[in-house]
Amino acid sequence: METVEEDVEEYSWREVVLPRLIPVVPHAAPELERETGERRRGRDLLVAVDFGPNSRHAFRWALAHLARIADTLHLVHAVSSVQNDLVYNKSQELMDELAVEAFKESLVHTKARIVEGDAGKVICREAERLKPAAVVIGTRGRSLIQRYLTPKPQFSDICGKL
Predict the structure, then answer these.
(1) Which domains are seen in the chain, by residue range?
(2) How far is CA 17 from CA 2, 5, 134, 137, in A?
(3) How many CA atoms, within 13 angstroms, populate the side-chain half-sphere of residue 14?
């Protein structure tokens, strides 16, 4: 078998410093010791967010149906430029709000990243980097007619084989 090297495209991103909400407990509680390793270790869940209502709905759906206490919720927001402080600050406000909501509702740890580029490609890159248990995205906010007139791309078409 021959190894094929791909050209890895560099991309710009900025880590978001979220409010530290979860206290650090030095020893695991005894009831967690009886649980499976996956439950105790937690999973990574990737949620793509923006300022739209569909994104907010997808975020709340992930909290209600997927997130467990030991999980880490990775919020990803795609922007045109990470060097624009106005865009970064507004995006950070969104991430702060979502991190607080995630902690209040599901007691999950949240990490956030603002990435420069096309939303579809950004989500795919982050999914390849994190290897999450699930990727949650909302719809693009199109009307009912636009959804049926435009061909719907599949996640595997956008990202290729992960």
Answers:
(1) 39-159 (3.40.50.620)
(2) 42, 34, 23, 22
(3) 19
Strand order in the sheet with 109-116: 13-16, 109-116, 72-79, 44-48, 134-136
pLDDT in tens, 76-114: 999 888 888 888 888 888 889 999 999 888 888 899 999
> What is the pTM for the complete model shown?
0.69
| Chain position carrying tokens 């569909």 | 54
The backbone region for 132, taken as left when phi is positive above 0, alpha when psi lies in -120 to 50, beta otherwise, is beta
Amino acid in the structure at residue 42: G
Residues 6+ apart with CB under 8 A from 46: 74, 76, 123, 126, 127, 130, 132, 134, 135, 136
For 39-56, write each residue's pLDDT tens digit.
Answer: 557 899 999 998 888 889
Q: How far is CA 130 from the centre of its chain?
A: 10
